[in-house]
Write a structure and sequence with these properties.
With 95 residues, this protein is an all-alpha fold. 59% of the residues lie in helices and 0% in strands. The chain has helices spanning 2-7, 15-30, 37-44, 52-61, 66-81. Helix 2 (15-30) crosses helix 3 (37-44). It is globular and about 45 Å long. The termini are far apart.
Length: 95
Amino acid sequence: MWDERVGAARGVFSLASLEIFVTLLSGWILAPGRSTITAMICAADPEGHRSHDAYHCFVRAGQWSMTVLWRVLGVELVELLCPTGPVCLDLDDTL
């Protein structure tokens, strides 16, 4: 199930970038304490299969769009949590 959900973001990244994204996302879930890039790397890639700089470069200068990623993941989340009905939101729009 994890691979299917994360695989939905496949179209947002190149193959190499997708692998880095999946590692960071896994590290975000597994890392105890603060979710810093370094903590995510330590949790998800303790053997150091990729250089430390590759992860930071991906976040800082990678060729991907946060807007597109959130759109893809948002659709996946709604389909997973509300497959048969409307999504009810309770928002405060005073700002």
